[in-house]
Amino acid sequence: MATSLKNLSQYDDANLIEVADKKFGIIVSEWNDEVTESLYNGALETLLTHGASRENILRKNVPGSFELPLAAQWLAQRDEIDAVICIGCVIQGETRHFDFICQAVAQGITDVGLKYNKPVIFGVLTPNTQQQALDRAGGKHGNKGDEAAITAIKMLGF
Ligand code: DLZ
Fold first, then answer.
1. How many domains does the chain have?
2. 1 domain residue, yes or no
3. Among 90, 95, 100, 102, which is best to mutate for testing ligand 1, by the most ligand atoms less than 8 A from CB?
4. How far does residue 131's CA lie from ligand 1's centre (Å)?
5. Structure pTM?
6. Does 111 map to a domain?
7. Among residues 60, 78, 97, 115, which one is catalytic?
8. Please, are residues 65 and 32 in contact by the beta-carbon 8 Å criterion?
9. What is the pLDDT of residues 137-149, one digit of tens each?
């Protein structure tokens, strides 16, 4: 469903598990940090709301979204980490750079989840403009960080 039709912060919590005993890694890209900090805050608050404890949430920063897959691999390979949430925002520019980064990040994150057999979540916005990003980082379309955290919880309860 197009995100313009869905509020990213709305979800049905009927079947969500308690995650008090789960350990999460959250990786945050420093590019477009006004956006990624909001995404991180959304993900963090959502995990806490569903029972996660702060000491079980490990945050790591990376320079840009392109670095998310490798950092995700470093966390996913740690036995004690149950799920990894990757937070980034790649904004369309005038060149094909956007396409290369988005493709690499999406494929890389997918590969890490399959390799380590645990949820590695794509909490990455790929908008055309900064405003579209802000609309999805706590703005009128909700917060993709919330959605990423809920996705991690749902996958842990699979
Ligand atoms: C270089 C670059 C550009 C132009 N744009 C973004 C962006 O919109 N979002 C993002 O997360 N990262 C961007 N980067 C940085 C790359 O992700 C990466 O950090 C560098 O190319 C170094 O590998």
1. 1
2. no
3. 90
4. 18
5. 0.95
6. yes
7. 97
8. no
9. 999 999 999 999 9
